Every structure is written in C-alpha cells, then in structure tokens.
Amino acid sequence: MKLSKVCVFGIEKELTFKNNINANVGDLVNVRVKNKIVRGVVIENLESNEENFYSEIISKENYSIDENSIKIAKWISDYYFCELYHSLKLFFPPNSLSMEKDYIKFSKKGFLKYNGSLSELEKKIIEKIKDKNYIRLSKFKPSQILIIEKLIEKGIIIKKRKIKKISSIEIKNLIDLSYPVKLPKKPNIEQALALSKILNGKKYLLFGPTGSGKTNIFIWLSQIILKENKGVIVLVPEISLSPHIARIFYEKFGDIVAIYHSSFTPSQRTYLWNEIKKGNKKIVIGPRSALFLPIKNLGLIIVDEEHESSYKQEEKKPYYNARDLSVLMSELYNATLILSSATPSIESYFNALRGKYELLKLKSRVKNYVYPSVEIVDLKKNIFLSSKLLNEIRQTLEKNNSVMIFFNRRGYSPVLICSDCGYVFKCNYCSVNLVFHKSIKGNYLECHICGRRYKVFEICPKCSSYNLKVVGFGTQRIEEELKNIFSNYEILRIDRDSIKNRKNLELIIRKIHSNYPKIIIGTQIIAKGFDLKDVKFAIVPNADLGLSVPDFRNYERNVQLLIQFIGRIRTGGLVYIQTYEPENEVFNFVKNIDYEGFLNYEIKKRKEMKFPPFYKLAIIEAKSKDETKAIELITEIYEKIKNENVEILGPAPAPIEKIKNYYRWRIILRSKSYKRIKEAIEKIKNYNVKVVIDPYDLM
Ligand SMILES: [Zn+2]
Ligand SMILES: [Zn+2]
Ligand SMILES: [Zn+2]
C-alpha cells in the first residue's frame, strides 16, 4: 500500500494518508480532516505495509512544487520557528490554498463521452447542478464534495479557479511613467571585468554607487543565462516607487518578463504563477514574495538594494528574510547569486570580507555623473532654515536649476501640545504622539503607527485651554514655509500622503522630470527611486532625525539614506547636511561619500557592542490588551529559559509599548551561536508568543 505524509494547511503536525491516486511529492491535494475537506501538500511518499493512516487522499489539484521548494519550506519552518504549512503556502498561488476560490460546473460534453456507470448519489449531484452556471465549491457539504471530486475525475464536472489574465497594456501602464529609459549598449572596461568574473553558481556582492551601471550588469548577465535556457529572479524592494529596473527588463526582454506588482489581485497572481510554471515567463521581477515563484531551471537570482529592510517579513508569519533565503536557494539550484547595492548592509559586506560572497566593486560612475560637494552644517550655530540656506536656494533657482530637500518625517508637525499645561495629544490605541496634518478637507491628527485619524481638538482635554500649538516640522510644514518665500516657483512634495493614488504619483514624477527650476521635498522615498538631472543644491535640514531611535541599525540605516540621497544628484553641485552633532564621526564618512569607510568603522562598533553580524538575536514578544497579562506571560517564559546558555535582555516593554491597544512585552535573546538560541526557544515553543529570528524591526 502506498502511504504519503501530507502537511495539511492549518494543522501543525504532518499526517499520514493512504495514497491511491498516485499523488507525488510536492502535489497540492485535498484531504478530509475532522469532517472538513482541506488542502495540503504531499511532503513524503512512504512504502509501507502498515495499516496506520489517518484517512485517504481525495484528489489532487493542478498545482505542484519541486523537492527543493519543500526543502526550503522545511528550512524556513525550522530556522524561523513557524509551522511548516505557513512556509509551504509561500510557494503556491494565493487562489489555490483553499476551495473558497474554486468553482464547478456540469460538463455536457464530458457527460456524453462518459460510458461507465454512475451511482445514485452521483446522479443526484448532476441533477442538482445540471442547469446552473459556475457554483462555488465551498457551498457543498464534505460528503457531496467527495462525490463531486469523483465526477471531476470522470470529466463530468469541470472545476475552475478565479484567474485573471494580465495584458501587456496593463503592465506597460504600471511601469511606464512616461519618461525615457536608456537600454544598455556595451559594457565599459570596469563593467566588462566584473562580468567576466561572474561565474555560474557563485555568490557575489555587487557594490557600486548610483550611476555605476549595476542595472546594465543585470541585463547582460540575464542575457547570458537566458541563452543557457535558464530562468532569472530579480528581487526589488518596491516596483511602484522605483519602476526603473522593471521597465528596463521589460523593454529589453518583452513578454517573457513577469512583473509581480504589489497592486495585482490574488487572481492575477495566480495567473502569473501558472504562466511561470508553464515556462512562458523566464524572468520574474518582484518584491520578496517573488522569490518563491516556480521559475523553470533557475540560473540567476538578483537581489537589488539588498540592504533594504523590506526583504524581511515581520508583519505576518513566517518572519523570513528573502535576501538570506536567496543564498540558500542559489545553493540548492546551483544558481548564480548577485546581492547588489550602492550601500550594502553590514551583514552582506561582512560576509563578503570573510569569503562567503565574492566582493565586486564598481568604483566609477558612468559618463556625465559628477558627485556634489558635501558640507556638514552645525545646527547649534544655524537655524533650521537659515538665511544662508535660503540664499543658496534662491541662487540655485535663479540659475534655472532645482533644489531637493530630504526630510524623513511626513505630516505638518509631529507634536500638538497645550501651551498652558503641556498636555501632548497621543493615539488612544498606541503609545505615540499624534502627527498634525493640514488638509483642504479639514486638518486632522494621525497616528503614524496604526493609521487612525482624529479630528483636531480645539481645547485641551486636561485644562480646557484653547492655547494649543504645533511643535516641530514635517514635510508639509517645510513645503508651506518655502511656498511663502519662493512663491514664484513650483514646489513638489513626495511622501506617502502626497502620492496616495497612482495619478498623483505619476503627475509628480512627470513634473520632476520636466525642465523648469523647482523645489522637491520628500521623505526617504526620494532617496530611493528618483534620478534627478538638474538638481544643483540638496539639503538634509536635520540629519539627526533617525539617530535617537533605540535600534542598533540606526546609524547604518541613516548613513545609507544620506549616501543614497547624495547619490541621486548626478551633475555636481552642493549638499548641506545639518546636524546638532557635527563632531559625530559618521558625518565624516558622509561628507567624503565614503560608505566603505563607514562599513569598516561600523563593523568594529558592532563587534564591541555585541550585535550582528557577530551575534545572533531573537525577539520573543508577548502581547495582550491587559498589560499585566503580557507581563505575566513574558515573565513565565523568562523563568523557563533563564538558565539556558544564552544572554537574555529584558523582560522589558517594547520601545513602542502599545500598538492597536495591545501592550507588548519582550525579551531579546543574544548569542554567538544560533544553536543555543534555538535550544532556548524550543523550550517555550508551545507558548503563544511572537518569535522573530534576526529581527529588523526593533521598535
Ligand atoms: Zn500622516
Ligand atoms: Zn492644557
Ligand atoms: Zn495608533
């Protein structure tokens, strides 16, 4: 008898089923568990004489994954502490995971062709659906579904799943933001050298500034890989904000490119999954989840902007890091791996130094790119928008050039306070201050953690004073102040508020690429995606914004943003970086645009401070609407593992103590050895807590 181990979605332990339908490892199948029909994946076939099985596999779906995918899913489940079904789900199209998206219909043709016998129950079902259009399968009882599955096998009923085709016009609309792109022609000497070094199946860290032609290298490499009849996966942080790479790939390779855009619906994703599985698409470009698409004969994985924290999923299970998984994946498929960045992460650079990846440096920027000169301005001696700064803006505009301002805080003002009693307005559900926003539809306060909006209070709830005032700046307020001073010039603001809909985003991008002088103000979005030709003066009004955050990565993140921002400027000019601590060493690296110098400096600090990449971290978080319960739970966990061979930080509340009404208490495990962290976590596996390995979000 053939038995199979099946990982059933929603059930932690794998179960053994009788396999009479010849289901293979990797097949998506239907099984009956506790009077319900649910989906699962065959993860192992057993040859056995044992009669010990849970029940029978009912039928298989048209979806299957390869054995390497199962290996990776098991690795994710093991390393990141999640149930196997959570990680297996990553590999299947969204519409295949339950029968909610399945529809059935009677097939007259199939019925006429069938010449076997039919049972009474089968006849009854046929009678019931004969004259109807597609019916949702989940409307039937499990006992009926069993019969329906048999009729599907006999060809008398057809099953359909919601799948929506994506037209090439739709794709062009998504990535074509009506400014021209240049397709790469011939590699320059440095690029050719890098290309000649890149061999199949090896791992590389490609480290080159903005404008050094990294995208061109991706294109040339993909050409080589395609000639070998292999496939390519390109991971990017977010296509909608930086459509550049997707666009170049699409223009170069056409319809064999699958663009896995975040705006696609589950039905469209399912369509793309099928196209990739069939081999109609040979290149995939998308965010972290695109790593799990079934590209045929995988030969090359590119992780662009590999330092971006968006590769780590921490909002929902499994809490994996796609960049780290791409390393494992390239090994299993014997595919070449390129991690690429102008500002690599400490982890990847360190891995390159110790030989885990080969370091490929591109030093020169391509023709016409000139670095600006960077000046560090002391905010203790100058005001925020000093007259010197305003003069420089005016002169730049008068010379028909543009000005760019990077300020990483949206809204008008981060604090609304009562002048009489000092009361500060906070979110009712999160332990953070509300941000004041101006709007033509009426000003409002917004919580930037949970997104909740509040009407602007007119009186202080504590002392009933009308004397409320805003404190501090956001992008909106800078925009307003500059509009008063430079009323004759166009001022564009790019932040999550101003580009909420696509139309606005497109309009702003079009204006940015136009030729008249303007002022562009933006959050980190402008540090990431925009190439600006005529910017001659750029300002970071307060570079200290992110530095006070209690996160060991805050210097890394902020220096990355500053260097990326400076890298956006292509034609020389001047940059002002304003700070209250100009003596802080990191600003030297920024001034000299010496990111590698910063990396080496920061690596030393990480070693001293016992942080990654020298130590491994794991966060264990207990949350509850009742703070005492959260404390009790985390204390119980602490007691269970306090004698383990790992360092334990806490228990302590998270820096943001309350989010969406949940109090968050946690401990952080630290050790040089992942094994020790794992052993400790194994002891508390049955507790209802969030466990994040290699965390990125420490707030
Ligand atoms: Zn806001
Ligand atoms: Zn008051
Ligand atoms: Zn909130």
Q: N- to C-terminal separation?
A: 53 Å
How many helical stretches? 21
Strand order of the largest sheet: 11-12-10-13-14-9-15
Q: Any idea what the shape is?
A: globular
- The portion of residues forming beta strands comes to 15-25%
CATH architecture of the largest domain: 3-Layer(aba) Sandwich
Task: Summarize it.
With 699 residues, this protein is α/β, with parallel strands linked by helices. It is built from 21 helices and 30 strands.
Please describe what this structure looks like.
The strands form seven sheets. Strands 11-12-10-13-14-9-15 form a seven-stranded parallel β-sheet, sandwiched between helices. Helix content is 31%, strand content 25%. Helix 17 runs antiparallel to helix 19 (595-609). The protein has four domains: 2-161, no CATH class; 168-361, Rossmann fold; 373-411 and 474-602, P-loop containing nucleotide triphosphate hydrolases (Rossmann fold); 616-693, Alpha-Beta Plaits (2-Layer Sandwich). By secondary structure, the protein is an alpha/beta fold. One zinc ion is lined by residues 427, 429-430, 447, 449-450, 452.
